[in-house]
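Q: How would the structure tokens look for this protein?
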Amino acid sequence: MNKKLPDTELRVMQVIWNSVTPVSTSAIREKLQEEKPWNLSALQTLLGRLVNRGFLKTEKEGKNRYYEPLVSEEEYLAEDSRRYLEKWKGGSLRDLVACLYESESVTMEDLKELREFIDEKTKE
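A: Here is the predicted structure in token form.
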């Protein structure tokens, strides 16, 4: 997967990832409208785009269309994080963490949690 989602499409995917699937267009719209109004036609267009790009599969049942993710949230996050790391620090996780620490974006406590995570994973 080498696909970056625009913010609006990502928000729709987050709703789907956090729903019991398959999920209907109306259920997706209802959840999105908790934040702001959504035009049904625009949502349908956006969902069609996500299907065409391979993020969703869809089935029509009666008058309703239902969607299921083809890409998990974890898969997308891992790929997006990898792209970000390559773009900003040439693939060096150490340089990224150092930059975040020096800019005070992460705390000593964050680094301790990271160390514990690394220690746990390297024991395996």
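The CA atoms of residues 24 and 63 lie 10 Å apart.

The chain is about 60% helix and 10% strand.

Upvote if useful.
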